[in-house]
Write a structure and sequence with these properties.
By secondary structure, the chain is of the alpha/beta class. The chain is built from 16 helices and 16 strands. It has helices at residues 22-33, 72-91, 102-119, 139-145, 163-166, 172-179, 190-202, 232-239, 242-257, 275-288, 310-330, 347-355, 371-379, 411-422, 426-442, 445-458, and strands at residues 4-10, 37-47, 56-60, 63-71, 128-132, 151-155, 184-187, 207-208, 213-216, 219-225, 261-266, 296-301, 338-341, 359-362, 387-391, 404-406. Helix 4 links the parallel strand 5 (128-132) and strand 6. The protein starts with a strand and ends in an 8-residue tail after the last helix. The structure holds GDP-alpha-D-glucose (GDG). GDP-alpha-D-glucose is lined by residues 18, 20-23, 25-26, 157-158, 228, 266, 268, 301, 303, 344-347, 350, 367-372, 375.
Length: 466
């Protein structure tokens, strides 16, 4: 088996169990279960512009973490700029939130070339390279320009919207052309693949062939759907971890004694996650169904991310205002309706909280997949499982049909669905959970990376790629 080299914008600190972020969790599992390899990317630190620092190498078991700092200018223009103020909103269908400057695109191209220059000396001819996510669309082209002939795959963790939206990206043709340097492009859902195919046909005059083969820009690639999963078995065990159980047991027993139900939400504090309307839906539940006052508690864990991008501070203020208003209106000396936690908590505590919550509430406006939905299912007690509420705009909705599927823009519908979830009879909960759990365990993280890497290995040789 060839050595696996994973490249992502950010390399996670694998020793920090409280670390948030779907990609971090997924790559950790993927590399470890392949017996190791290299994980290359940014270490999360910034240095003064113009500083040159050689890559740092750190071993975590059989995985080598090879990392670079980023200059302050690159952080501002490539990371906060093009990646998170142009591509992130665009690919989440939010053209209204794009903040574009020409220097952002220049920095995006420059940093991708820097990554390629630093990576090439570390590579062996027989390596398999797996590039991740929207920060690194043009990395494949930069690597090919330096003579890389290895198999290179790319996986997009976030949605790929229809061509009408993609064409709002400055130099979109250059961007999509650069993806054709990869031998295999993986998307989360069939919808994403179809949107990409539409772009190729309508905007690039390309052709779609069988087995995901696409021809355009004078070259060929393969685009397919590989829905990401979780390590379901491990997460299930984690949810029963003694330490973590200990932490939440008292609270949970008190809730049970008082016949109270907990609704849980866990999302990075991001506008794509639909948090303000989620808060409003909970308030609406208390208005429409007063029997849940003093009975239903909503716990929302929302660790901060990208707080230096302005729109993220705006949503933080909005959520603080909303939670203050809801608690001000409904809280009593012995009951707080909404518990809003704006920090990261330990993974095992999260798992135990999922297990002790009667409803998992996942309502993004747009999401590549949403691992929280799968984690909630994996953590349930199968004899008495909770109910998953899931947005139809999460990639996970393509495979998790037995969840209660909602429209995250419709506050009343969400409130009614919360009521349905809280009052659902045991037999229905078990039927739904059984089907969901089977799929979450079958299509787990191992199935995901095995399927992607086997497909990549079966693609024709990369020779001739531009
Ligand atoms: C991107 C795509 C796609 C959250 N808070 C805490 C915490 N988390 C963990 C969750 C979960 C992960 O972070 C979040 O994953 P999601 O999939 O929900 O969302 P993104 O971070 O936006 O991830 C997404 C994913 O990539 C994978 O391809 O599914 O669509 O946007 O694992 O449990 N973990 C800890 N403390 C927290 O407070 N320990």
């Amino acid at each position: 088996m060839s050595r696996l080299v994973v490249v992502s914008n950010r390399v996670a600190d694998l020793s920090n169990t409280a670390q948030a972020g779907g990609l971090a969790v997924a790559m950790d599992e993927a590399l470890k279960s392949r017996g190791g390899g290299i994980w290359f990317g940014w270490n999360g630190e910034t240095v003064a512009s113009g500083t040159r620092v050689p890559p740092n190498r750190q071993r975590m078991g059989n995985v080598s973490l090879i990392t670079l700092p980023m200059t302050k200018r690159d952080y501002r223009d490539y990371y906060a700029g093009f990646s998170n103020s142009v591509l992130w909103p665009l690919l989440h269908y939010r053209l209204d939130l794009i903040e574009y400057k020409t220097v952002f695109l220049n920095a995006y191209k420059r940093v991708n070339r820097k990554f390629a220059n630093a990576l090439v000396p570390l590579l062996k001819k027989t390596d398999t390279i797996w590039v991740h996510d929207y920060h690194l669309f043009p990395l494949g082209t930069a690597l090919r320009a330096l003579g890389c002939k290895q198999k290179i795959g790319f996986f997009l963790h976030i949605p790929f919207p229809p061509p009408d939206i993609v064409t709002a990206a400055p130099q979109h043709e250059w961007l999509i052309r650069s993806m054709f340097s990869y031998d295999l492009i993986g998307f989360q859902t069939h919808t994403d693949v179809a949107n990409f195919q539409h772009y190729v046909v309508e905007q690039a005059g390309g052709k779609v062939h069988e087995d995901g083969i696409l021809k355009a820009f004078g070259t060929t690639t393969i685009a397919k759907c590989f829905p990401i999963g979780i390590d379901a078995e491990k997460f299930q065990l984690l949810s029963m971890d003694d330490d973590a159980q200990e932490q939440v047991k008292l609270q949970s027993m008190r809730q049970k004694l008082l016949n109270r139900k907990t609704i849980i939400g866990v999302d990075r504090l991001d506008y794509s996650k639909g948090l303000p309307d989620k808060f409003r839906a909970f308030e609406r539940l208390l208005e429409l169904y007063p029997e849940h006052v003093k009975k239903a508690t909503f716990m929302q864990i929302a660790p901060p991310t990208r707080s230096d991008v302005e729109v993220y501070s705006e949503i933080r203020v909005e959520l603080e205002t909303l939670s203050g208003a809801i608690n001000g209106r409904y809280a009593d000396f012995n009951w707080v309706p909404l518990r809003y936690i704006h920090r990261s908590i330990e993974r095992k505590t999260l798992a135990a909280l999922f297990r002790h919550s009667e409803v998992g509430f996942v309502s993004p406006l747009r999401d590549g997949m949403n691992l929280v939905a799968k984690e909630y299912v994996a953590a349930q007690n199968e004899a008495d499982p909770g109910v998953l509420i899931l947005s139809k705009f999460a990639g996970a909705a393509e495979e998790m049909h037995e969840a209660l599927i909602i429209n995250p823009y419709d506050v009343d519908e969400m409130a009614n669905t919360l009521n349905k979830a809280i009052t659902m009879p045991l037999a229905e909960r078990r039927n739904r959970h059984q089907a969901l759990s089977r799929r979450v365990h079958e299509n787990d993280i191992t199935a995901w990376h095995t399927d992607f890497l086997n497909t990549l290995s079966a693609t024709p040789a990369a020779t001739g790629k531009t």
